[in-house]
Design goal:
This protein is an alpha/beta fold. Helix content is about 45%, strand content about 25%.
């Protein structure tokens, strides 16, 4: 017995007309008649009473029809689920990210992907850059969102978004009265920075920018997260260079101002193993591509 035969049986049982049933099944009427006759011989049960004017279900067919329909429906559900698995519409997606990414592109991107693949089960974990790279490499996570990843790595790295850096200022600081702050005006100012072991590439990038501007940063405090950094700024302990998305989280006692001459930028990247692209990850990479296109269009407008 084949599932195809069960489907022929259920469709003919609904139509009670060989011509209409054959049209629904996209086969010729003689082929349908032959398949039904073969199915009846295989079962040893007569399913239809045929006259020149009509087709009727036998009592045996009426008993077998509900189970046949269930089997056909189960087969269709299995086929549909297999397609959804293949296309990454269902399954597990494991992502890790560094704390500096949380308020940036991640919320908007995850919203888009959930709209596209609402049945995917998403796992998120915050970590530091090196741990994120190691976890993706070891297969613990499918991909990692990182800031300013220029380190050599065997992972695939996609540039997702470029974001300007701004300065977070205690509200009592004189710079809070300005519209903008020149980058060179950070010289001699007490700064709060993320510790190097949390964001090594971002830390080194900041040091390089200060050196290019002709000064060494006066780092008075270090923090292990953006939120801790902003708490220190709110306490008046120093200024902090953060990404523009940091200001999306309201923080009493902190003012944000653009940095100019130059305006530093920070790259948000996505790292993943090119040899371990699961269907859910492949679907997520498509969401990333669509989001990049959306941001590019918004910038042009």
């Amino acid at each position: 017995m084949e599932l195809r035969q069960l489907r022929y049986f259920t469709v003919l049982a609904e139509e009670l007309h060989y011509g209409r049933a054959a049209e629904r099944l996209y086969i010729a009427q003689p082929a349908l008649s032959k398949q039904i006759a073969s199915f009846e011989r295989e079962l040893g049960v007569r399913l239809f009473d045929r006259t020149r004017r009509r087709v009727q279900l036998t009592s045996s067919a009426r008993l077998l029809l509900p189970e046949a329909k269930r089997l056909v429906e189960m087969s269709q559900r299995f086929t549909d689920n297999a397609r959804r698995v293949r296309e990454g519409e269902i399954g597990d997606l494991r992502l890790c990210y560094t704390g500096t990414v949380a308020e940036s592109a991640l919320p908007e991107l995850l919203r888009l992907h959930h709209e596209r693949c609402p049945s995917v089960v998403l796992s998120l974990r915050e970590t530091n850059t090196q741990a994120a790279l190691d976890d993706v490499r070891d297969g613990m996570f499918d991909a990692a969102f990182l800031r300013h990843t220029t380190a050599e790595t065997d992972l695939e790295v996609v540039k997702v978004k470029e974001e300007p850096a701004i300065v977070a200022i205690p509200e009592s600081h004189p710079y809070a009265a300005r519209d903008v702050v020149r980058f060179t005006e950070l010289r001699g100012q007490p700064l709060v920075m993320m510790t190097r072991n949390v964001e090594p590439h971002l830390f080194d990038h900041a040091i390089t920018l200060c050196s290019a501007a002709g000064f060494s940063p006066f780092v008075i405090h270090e923090a292990d997260s953006v939120q801790t950094t902003l708490s220190m700024v709110a306490s008046g302990l120093g200024l902090a260079v953060v990404t523009a998305s940091a200001q999306l989280t309201a923080r009493t006692g902190v003012e944000y101002r653009p940095l100019i001459d130059p305006t530093p930028s920070v790259t948000l990247s996505l790292a993943y193993r090119g040899d371990q692209i699961t269907p859910p990850l492949d679907a997520f990479l498509e969401s990333v591509r669509l989001m990049i296109e959306k941001w590019a269009t918004a910038q042009q407008d």
